[in-house]
Amino acid sequence: MKAVLITGASSGIGKALSYQFAAHGHNLVIAARRQEELDKIKQDIESRFSVKVIVKVSDLAIDGGADRLYEELREFDIEVMINNAGFGDFAMPWEMDLAKAQTMVDLNVRALTTLSLRYVRDYSDTQVTLLNVASIGGYTQFDIAVTYCATKFYVASFTEGLAQSLMDQGKPMRAKVLAPGPTESEFVTHSSEKGAIEGDGLFPENAFITAEQLAQYAYQLFESDQAVGIVNDENQLELKEPIYPYVQVPH
Ligand SMILES: NC(=O)c1ccc[n+]([C@@H]2O[C@H](COP(=O)([O-])OP(=O)(O)OC[C@H]3O[C@@H](n4cnc5c(N)ncnc54)[C@H](OP(=O)(O)O)[C@@H]3O)[C@@H](O)[C@H]2O)c1
User: Fold this and answer.
1) Does residue 164 have its Cβ closer than 6 Å to ligand 1?
2) How far is ligand 1, taken at its centre, from the CA of residue 75, in Å?
3) pLDDT by residue (tens digit) across 202-239?
4) Which strand (E) or helix (H) includes residue 100?
5) Angle formed by the axes of helices 98-105 and 146-168, to 10°?
6) What is the best residue among 7, 11, 113, 202 to mutate for testing ligand 1's pocket, by most ligand atoms within 8 Å of CB?
7) Tens digits of per-residue pLDDT, 87-103?
8) pLDDT, tens digit, for every residue of 131-187?
9) What average pLDDT does the structure give for the chain?
């Protein structure tokens, strides 16, 4: 069965992406830790659209979590992989909860790398798409989120590099970076946990777009021939060529 994998599908952007891809007729594999939320989303999507939704309960921040999820995907033909699961932390570097920072790197960087590389290894000669969710914080640093932004710089540069190498080598697989700006979700709540900076964090309340709007932008990026989709200051989607410097080394 052909299906789209969406990690972090139990809330916010991942949940909205699930509805967006289902509305376009794609079967889904939705993954996160909260089974109850995933089950509700599965039921609702299957009652509204003629698609199949598979639920995978998975903690991607723990050792071996991403490998286990990938192994469970073997029975599916993954036409799109969306690495969306991630979280932030609004705190100055010297005030950060170290355990939270480590889990953030494990989820935002380590799990995304494992899933992306295993997908590229198995599917690079197939017409499929890898869509990794970075952030505008993947292109600009914010003082109260330097560690989070660094994880997203990684996501952006890693995915852009994959996109360029796949194109250089004439491979049919595509890799794309989605860089959302402030988007309504549980992100701000989770980024403000554990004694970090209180309030809205980086942006005023009226700066936020809905997760549904962002999911429409993600679908536009998916359908386009561009590798990068950045939500700009006016909350518009800008589709772009890769931004990070890239050199093709003769070998
Ligand atoms: N919202 C924004 O303003 C914004 C802006 C730029 C980029 N982003 C990025 O967008 C992505 C989605 O975030 P969101 O805004 O939709 O926030 P969210 O509502 O908090 O969603 C985060 C998702 O990640 C999942 N998740 C968290 N820890 C996990 C773990 N250990 N293993 C597996 N799944 C885990 C959560 O599900 P469970 O708790 O059920 O596991 C949830 O489904 C993130 O990568 C975030 O960095 C968000």
Assistant:
1) no
2) 26
3) 788 889 999 999 999 999 999 999 999 999 999 999 99
4) helix 98-105
5) 10
6) 11
7) 999 999 999 999 999 99
8) 999 999 999 999 999 999 999 999 999 999 999 999 999 999 999 999 999 999 999
9) 95
Question: So what CATH class is 2-87+98-181+210-240?
Answer: alpha beta
pLDDT of 190 reads 87
Among residues 152, 154, 176, 217, the one annotated as catalytic is 152
Please report the pLDDT score of residue 108 as a whole number: 98
β-pairing, 77-83 with 228-231?
Answer: unpaired
- 151 neighbors 196 (Cβ within 8 angstroms): no
Query: What spacing in Å lies between the alpha carbon of 140 and ligand 1's midpoint?
Result: 19
Residue 74: both structure tokens together: 């073997």
User: Is 130:172 a contact under the CB 8 Å cutoff?
Assistant: no
**152 included as an active-site residue:** yes
Ordered by start, the domain boundaries in the chain are 2-87+98-181+210-240
Asked whether residue 196 carries a pLDDT value surpassing 60, the answer given is no
